[in-house]
Amino acid sequence: MSSAVSMNAVAPSGKPIVRLEHVSKTFSNGTIALKDMSLTIGEGEFVSLLGPSGCGKSTALRIMAGLGDASTGRVEWPTMPHDASGKPEREIGFVFQEPTLMPWATVYKNVWLPLRLHGVSKAAARERVMSALEMVGLDKFADSYPRELSGGMKMRVSIARALVTRPRVLLMDEPFAALDEITRQKLNDDLLRLWEQFGWTVVFVTHSVFESVYLSSRIVVMAARPGRVIDEMEVDAPHPRGVAFRTSLEYGEFCRRASQSLLSAIGANDHL
Amino acid sequence: MSQLDQSGAVPAAAENAAPAVSLSGERVLRVIVPLVMLAALVGLWAWYVQAYNIPKYILPSPALVAQSLVNDWPILGAALLVTLKITFAALAIALVGGVVLAVLLVQSKWIELAISPYMVILQVTPIVAIAPLILIYAPSTQVALLVCAWIVAFFPVLSNTTQGLKSTDHNLLNLFELYGASPLQTLFLLKLPAALPYFLAGLRIAGGLALIAAVVAEFAAGSAGAGSGLAFRLLESQYRLNIPRLFAALLLLCATGVAIYGATSLISHLMLRRWHESAIRREN
């Protein structure tokens, strides 16, 4: 383990749900996307992976999800059932940076998809699909097509699809990066409220300091070339959080610390 | 919880409603302008034949062509039916074969490497040049015509569908992998729907080409008798200097081609109008 990690490593609260042990990923073109990353995430945590582009935060998330294997090192889900190929089964919801909806299918059919792939019929899935859509406030749009929705609404559908399997863990890959500031803030508030209510574990990849401080219980700061963890900080502000927190001195202080950490992450690469 | 977002949907719906009014006006124009143009051309044709006293074996008047169309209908109608049968049988086999082969090509790189060069060779060789050979090998003229039309119609379906299958959104592929989709589920729920717009573009090309190939192959084959199609009737009319009938046969061919194009375009529009950009743009 590098000295940078041990310097500020924060112990996870709760029982470990996912554990990365010395995970490295080298792409076929020789790029080292991730170097010796170790991280334990506890049940019920909201962890942000914060860093500049190219720091391997998305790669780490994908490896956790089982999309592509680690070159070396291990990913463990100690408490989850696994399928035949060794992937953690069903209890993970993944949200991509783009909404990634099937344009030919209605909102309902898009949200039904994860259940459909596991053989749940359209009628049998009804209750779960509708409750997932209700969670994101789109139950009235079940019969709309994606092109009829705004960018923020498409992202909500994408989140509903991740929630429909009732996962214990939500992995989110810069889900709101492409949205305008107002829509993004609204979705942040809604996500936070859902997290406070349902107590999932969330791993949230972002390059926004403000977003990560607002949402997270813990921030993992990463640097690029090679992608690695350089710092961790706990955001021990109480929940529920809202405008009051976002305008507090305390929030400003957390942002300052995270920014400094991120600056040193960028500074670690003089050619940036 | 999401009033902010949902309000965004209302102006979008209103935008859709507003152009609908002017759209109907534009639609009427779209029908009327070509019709007026047609009437003008036919009028000019009739006047020219009349004014310059053109003999009917050079250029028959529109009235004479219409008359021939009615009088010769037993012959021309039967011929049209033959040509239509060949065209649609060839198109049907091309659609099924093209899609199945495209799926195979995309599944395996080896199959693609082995087969695609020959598909291209088959496509670039003029069908008139292969037709004599096919005539020798095929058990009957009808089968030979069918094979010719199929060869021509097959390629656009194959090539477009392959392209479509390969253009599947990578994020969606990741999503399917993440949720443990089987290869068959990925094919039927993701790759085939994603390829649909490409396939339909191929269908529109193939529909027109199948008719052209059916006619060209019949020219090459020179079939005669009860089983002959419109192409033979065209040639026959030329030999006999029955130019009004030649025009009537030509008219039938044109109408068939336009009808096939219209039908395939309509199918394409109906299947894509809810979600695909191409169908949306056409409405504006």
From TrEMBL, chain B:
UniProt superkingdom: Bacteria
Keyword DNA damage: no
Membrane-traversing stretches: 31-53, 73-106, 118-137, 143-160, 210-235, 247-272
Name the UniProt record assigns to this protein: NitT/TauT family transport system permease protein
ABC transmembrane type-1 domain: residues covered: 80-264
Family to which this protein belongs: Belongs to the binding-protein-dependent transport system permease family.
Compartment(s) of residence: Cell membrane
Organism (species): Kaistia hirudinis
GO biological process assignments: transmembrane transport
